[in-house]
Write a structure and sequence with these properties.
The complex is a heterodimer.
Chain A lengths: L22 H6 L5 E8 L2 E8 L4 H8 L18 E4 L2 E4 L12 E3 L1 H4 L7 H8 L9 H16 L18 H7 L10 H11 L5
Parallel strand pairs in A: 1-5
Antiparallel strand pairs in A: 1-2, 3-4, 3-5
Chain B lengths: L4 E4 L3 H10 L3 E4 L5 H6 L7 E4 L8 E3 L5 E4 L4 H6 L1 H6 L1 H8 L4 H6 L2 H6 L5 H4 L41 H7 L3 E5 L5 E5 L22 E7 L6 E7 L10 E7 L5 E6 L9 H4 L6 H8 L11 H18 L1
Parallel strand pairs in B: 1-3, 2-3
Antiparallel strand pairs in B: 4-5, 5-8, 6-7, 6-8, 9-10, 10-11
Helix pairs in contact in B: 5-9, 11-12
Chain lengths: 202, 316
């Protein structure tokens, strides 16, 4: 019933609970392998019926048609799917849509628009922080959250002193952005863009 | 990904009972490791019990002056906690050396302890792996084994444990609090949580089916210099080839544990008596009887050199 609606899970083998692996689990599995979930995306409340297997990434792209968030590796290794949930950046590919009941989700579409750019989007353009652009929405969502993390005083692997407040130095930004891969190699320009938004000298 | 049903748990005891009752059921918390493995059909739960609503996300001071860390405290929050940074710096350092910012925002304390090996043959479902498919053999033995264990290995498995945090928890002598399916509670010293592979590498911990970790407790702080050195193939966002976690006191005594060398975080208390005698003496005891492959034999000298750097940093 719902399977066909989700292109990326439609290829998975088991169409219903009846084919679950053990008879015991099938008996226990009362609600079908589908679920309702409701969360706020870019300020709008969205309610969905999803196969339980639907990741937050697939819910955004395939159900809500917010295709700004990109699917790269689909295994949490590349960061292209980075979105901000309740103020924190996460990999949308490694979390289930049904686990986000009531959450506030911000995607690249919610950060800014072509006529009203978020300062990080404007800085990426100014500093040429992309080439093919595929990783860019994830880079920008991550970059915005990284500056919030620095401002919140969260230390990193390269912070020399755990007890003092970190600063948005190039070394700090590079370490904190290591979960976002750019195969075009725009890294140094991304750091310049972030540095400018952080209010430091590029 | 195989189909599964989903429910949100209402209490730890209820969640534990449900996992024990329903064949093929699993807990899900952060999900960063489990969902990765489910996509590859290495994990195929038929039912997921979401424990994120169980309010196990507090960090509290214990009456003994230690810390009680809820099982669902996210890696970011644990690393950034002021008391952890001040009194258990080793734990902050180990957490910050692992994964990426996005993953640390989601990954939980208990999930980090229970994450599964990154052995490439465990991940490749076309290869034999006794951990993934008991009795099928081990492709890592005689295969690409650069990242694999050198201590406590067996003929069935040479996988290493991937966690940085667990190395720090072992040095800090943490205790793991659990709830069993019958609702009873117990406390497991961290050193007794993870198992060596033996003939049953698929059984990675001493937890019983359905047993749920609800908290990790740290004893009161012991002072000293807290140092975590991780050696890996790139500067960030990679698993350890080896890591050294240490607390070194002013008189040169201390504690040390290793990551990346065994199926569990590795500590030999007898080795710690050698700390004042330097890295070579400690390593000789820590890695006595190491069983290396031609690809991972470098780990023995890498441990010694990394430990020498740690002891040097502790003195200065």
């Amino acid at each position: 019933m719902l399977i066909g609606a989700v292109a990326t899970t439609a290829t998975a083998a088991a169409p219903s609970v009846a084919s679950a692996q053990t008879p015991r689990a099938a008996t226990a599995a009362k609600p079908a392998a589908a679920s309702k979930v409701s969360f706020t995306v870019n300020g709008q409340v969205r309610s969905l019926d999803v196969d339980t297997r639907t990741t937050l990434l697939d819910a955004l792209r395939e159900h809500l048609h917010l295709s700004g968030t990109k699917k790269g590796c689909d295994h949490g290794q590349c960061g292209a799917c980075t979105v901000i949930v309740d103020g924190r950046r996460i990999n949308a590919c490694l979390t289930l849509a049904v686990m986000h009941e009531g959450d506030r989700i911000t995607t690249i579409e919610g950060l800014g628009t072509s006529v009203n750019l978020h300062p990080m989007q404007a800085a990426f353009i100014k500093h040429d922080g992309y080439q093919c652009g595929y990783c860019t929405p994830g880079q920008i969502c991550s970059a915005v959250a990284v500056l919030d993390e620095v401002n919140a005083g969260i230390p990193s692997h390269v912070s020399t002193d755990l007890l003092s407040s970190p600063e948005a130095t190039a070394a700090e930004l590079r370490e904190r952005m290591s979960g976002n891969i750019c195969r075009c190699g725009a890294y140094s320009n991304i750091i310049d863009a972030m540095t400018e938004v952080a209010g430091r000298k590029v | 990904m195989k189909s599964f049903t989903y429910e949100r748990a209402n209490s730890p005891a209820e969640a534990a009972a449900a996992v024990a009752r329903v064949s093929g059921a699993k807990f899900i918390a952060g999900g960063t490791n489990l969902l990765d493995l489910m996509k590859l059909e290495i994990e195929t739960p038929t039912h997921l019990i979401d424990i994120n609503g169980l309010a196990l996300d507090k960090i509290e001071t214990t009456p003994e002056g230690g810390l009680r860390i809820g099982a669902l405290v996210r890696n970011t929050d644990l690393a950034a906690n002021q008391r952890v940074r001040r009194d258990y710096g080793l734990l902050s350092r180990a957490l910050l050396a692992g994964a990426s910012g996005q993953l640390r925002n989601k990954a939980t304390t208990a999930g980090n302890l229970l994450q599964r090996t990154r052995c490439p043959y465990f991940y490749d479902t076309n290869q034999p792996c006794n951990k993934r498919k008991p009795g099928s053999g081990c492709a890592a033995i005689g295969g690409f084994s650069r990242s694999h264990a050198v201590m406590g290995v067996s003929d069935a498995c040479i996988a290493s444990h991937p966690s940085d945090m667990a190395v720090a928890m072992l040095v800090l002598e943490a205790e793991v609090e659990t709830v069993k399916p019958d609702g009873s509670k117990r406390s497991i010293p961290i050193a007794e949580l993870h198992r060596l592979p033996g003939d049953t590498p698929q059984t990675e911990t001493t937890l019983m089916p359905g047993e749920l970790i609800v908290a990790v407790t740290l004893p009161k702080p012991i002072g000293g210099k807290h140092i975590y050195h991780k050696v890996r193939d790139r500067a960030s966002y990679a698993f350890a080839l080896i890591s050294v976690g240490a607390i070194v006191q002013q008189d040169g005594t201390g504690r040390v544990a290793l990551g990346g060398v065994a199926h569990k975080p590795w500590r030999i208390e007898a080795a710690e008596a050698e700390l004042p005698n330097g890295a070579k003496a400690v390593t000789a005891k820590l890695l006595a009887g190491a069983k290396t492959t031609h690809q991972n034999a470098f780990k023995v000298s890498l441990v010694e050199r990394t430990l020498a750097a740690v002891l040097d940093e502790a003195r200065n």
